[in-house]
Amino acid sequence: MNRGVILLLGMVLLCCCIQQEPKIEYQCWDGSIVMDISKCPPTTTTRRTTTTTTTTQPCQWTDETCRLYCSKECDTRPLEFCMLNETTCICEFRCGTTTTTTTTTTTTTTTTLKKWLMEKEVDEAIYWGEQNKFNLSSLLSRYAYPNYSVGYEHIIIYTPYLNLALESASRAREYRALNQSEIDEIITDEEIMFRVKLYGDSKDFADDIRTVIKVRGDVIHPVRSRFDNSPETTAYWPDSPAYFAVNTYVFPDYDELEGRIIQFVVIKYTGEDLYKIDMSDYR
Asked: In angstroms, how far is CA 224 from the centroid of its own chain?
């Protein structure tokens, strides 16, 4: 084999050895694979800076609108604190606690009682009583219906005028006089009393005798009745009528009877007696 062939074979073997040398790969920091480490991306990061522009709006609150807002929020509660914070543009407030105060009002009602007699009539009744302080029959006979005769049933009508005269006579017998308070009590009394003289033949004949008053169809019953438990003998005893008694009946409202024509009914076991009385005849 000549020298030239040997040289050629040697070169081929050398090339084969060189081609079989292993390849080297590199993994970069970001995970990429390169054959040349210089091909890896750089590790230095360039940051992008963003500039934000803030635009400040003017505060919409004013001291006046803040005060209105505070008052509205507290409603009926007292407003303890209210202020506009100009830095934060916030209306700050604080409400108090509602305190309930109960006020008690006392109403005094004064009732003016009707006086049945004028001042002139008061003076006349007092004088009449004083003049007849030892003669009560003279006073009572003027207020008896139908008459004051012995032996006859009759009714005595105790009006304010007669009551004042009788009380005046009683005081005059003791050399005393009525004061204004006592006079007012008599002439403003709303009740009226009737005393009925009755005749019968037994000691208890008057125990259950009742009375009513009729006025224009209305029936008025007494509010109090007092029966005579000690009848006295008459001049006819033991003949009829042997006894007499005086029963008392008090009716509620003098104003309903004053000046009117009434029917006074005396109710007995055997029947009833009706007396028609004109109250205007008895002041």
From this structure: 35
Three-state SS for 59-81 is CCCCHHHHHHHHHHHHCCCCEEE
pLDDT digits (tens, 9 = 90+) for 3-30: 555 555 556 555 544 444 455 666 666 6
Spell out where the chain has E strands: 26-27, 33-34, 79-85, 90-95, 144-145, 154-158, 192-200, 210-215, 218-220, 224-226, 232-233, 243-251, 261-267, 272-278
| Reported pTM | 0.61
The one-character DSSP state at 256 is G
Q: How far is CA 147 from the centre of its chain?
A: 55
Phi-psi group of 175: left, alpha or beta (phi > 0 → left; psi -120 to 50 → alpha; rest → beta): left
Q: Which two tokens stand for residue 236?
A: 């006819």
Question: Can you tell me the distance from the alpha carbon of 227 to that of 224, in angstroms, rounded to the nearest whole number?
Answer: 10
Residue 245 backbone phi and psi in degrees, to 5: -140, 160
